[in-house]
Amino acid sequence: MAQWRWLTAGESHGPGLVGIVEGVPAGVAVTRALIDGDLARRQQGYGRGGRMAIERDQVKIFGGVRHGRTLGGPVALLVENRDFANWAESMSPDPATPDRVVTRPRPGHADLVGGIKYGHRDLRNVLERASARETTMRVALGAVARSFLQGLGIHVVGHVISIGSVHIKPADWKLEDFERAETSPVRVLDSESEAKMMSLIDDAKAAGDTLGGTFEIVAFGLPVGLGSYVQWDRRLEAQLAQALLSIPAMKAVEVGTGFQQADLAGSQVHDAIWWEQDAGFTRRSNRAGGLEGGITTGMPMTVRVGMKPLSTLMSPLGSFDIESKEPFLAQVERSDVTAVPAAVTIGEAMVLHVLAGAVLEKFGGDSLEEIHERVESWRARVRKF
Q: Per UniProt, where does FMN bind (predicted)?
């Protein structure tokens, strides 16, 4: 049976980023415009830094697609780094004496521990791959997963819940509500909070500081039965947590109402089951976030992610040079004040990858048409349970 497997390669200031995804069924609509649309969303957001003014990410499709449809084989993608023109000698793969050497690790980044682990005396060898620039290709490959799942009636969307100390008010959002996030500079659904967030970002920029926040990813249209309780690594919550925490700067994941549930009685946490003749079994509420026992319930699946402030500060914290062992202010690299709005798109991509894999595990099939027939047959069967 096909599995959804993918890999990325490339460095932040190298020639480009490469990705390959295997398991994509035949017949999925994939175009450069489709992928470029999500790449553009990743680069947007109030509080982004100078790199976004340089890069205008556009994908090149190198395999697996013909005339706008996948062929059933691996899909290979490339996104070139425009900034490589300024780094061609420094990042050349050919033998040379290293320049732009970094010996001052930044607190909160992989610089120091990565250098220790891999034996790098030039910490640029760490930060180039540990950089969030790598998530560009995750998003490009995620766009392929998005098209696959949308062909099955599954939609994955996201929005910002908080930036710094500014939080939006909780609400029961519907799929059509998320169009508002696409027009917001901070990708937020609450217009009242938007201005407060932007003002807070301005204050942090003036102070040479950075801001974190939280965002929510919601999947609509999922069938009952994705995931499993029979083994620890097949529980969908576990897969989602690993995928989302693999994004640089992410520090927490909760499903449904998550951490709030630890403070409440069971009667305030669990979702009452309901049954209707035409719809079959459903829930009266969705505090579980669409997942019970590691399996989708058919309700919207909601996961929230906590992002720490970015590690690179324009007013840097103290550090020590790994060569001289003398104290210095930490290395300053080009950075953002906040990337929470952009992280929403990356979070969507990671959820899309997990769900694409879960769909293939449950239904199998070699073409989108075949899988669609199996999904619809399953939905009809579930309604009669």
A: 129-131, 293, 308-312, 334
